[in-house]
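User: Hey, my collaborator sent me this sequence without any context and asked if I could get a structure. I don't really work with proteins. Can you help?
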Amino acid sequence: MFLFRVGLLIKSTFTSLSLSRTDLVLLSKRLVMAAQSRALVSAQWLADAVRNNLVGPTLRVLDSSWYLPKTKRDPRAEFAQKHIPGSSFFDIDDCSDKSSALDHMLPTSSNFSRYVGGLGIGNDTHVVVYDTSDFGSFCAPRVWWMFRLFGHSSVSVLDGGMRNWLADGYPVTSDRSEPECREFRATVNTSWVKSYEDVLENIGTKKVQVVDARSAGRFRGTEPEPRDDTLPGHFPGTINMPFTSFLDASGKELGAEGLSKLFREAGVDLEQPLWATCGSGVTSCHVVLAAHLLGHPGACVYDGSWSEWFKRASAEHVVSEGGGKKV
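Assistant: No problem. I've predicted the 3D structure and written it out in structure-token form, which is a compact way to encode the shape of the chain:
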């Protein structure tokens, strides 16, 4: 429907303005680019694309599902059983820095380029990411952010994920697609990635707002962390905004008014620098996505997040209503 509306818009503009064919082509390209740069696409938009056989070199769909081991869910096995037609599986553990002791830390530019090129993605491809979380969206924003970090703005999150895709009655399949490899050239924006040292310095300077997207219990230290070697809590000066608060009851992203209210009530000024953290750099990207949707695309991510912080920080920099970190 959206592509049909674009076609009508192009036709009506051409008629009313008497544009030349060259101008029409340029306008068409701009409109398509605008559609591709949208951070969210609806299930209906994607269903129309699937039905019209648009999934291919210029449109790729990725199932980016990932779960903690304690959930005992195997996202690859689930993908093999059921996925959106034409989609490929994006493994955030596979596309990561294998030399790091931390989970799914960012890969190098060359490794990211090689990985997504193997999924049939080029620099002119519009990428749509989703996951199969019961929340509606869990790790898809992480992959959305990764593409943007590596210089690819034509990436969208499927609003509501597989949960809403199924609820709306759209088709799924177990058929595998084997996209032809393409060349992808990544250009990383390192300023969007923050380190342990950056956060430690900011605790002293208090120059940047930092939002933690974990649950309130994990943030306060009253509920356990999902990793056995890590206790709950947070680092000084952090603001808690659980990633689920950005979603409505159906699992779709809140509208602009709802998102603005969330940030306002949390005391976050989006006109000022913003960093996001969580357990291991995944759900922090919900904060980045929400800020982006409100016209503030520069929020940064502490990639190591609490998994790294708890292991490296001194006891004085671990705030917890529970036992905290022992000296």
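In plain terms: Residues 1-17, 31-36 have pLDDT under 50 and may be disordered. You can pass these tokens on to your collaborator as they are.
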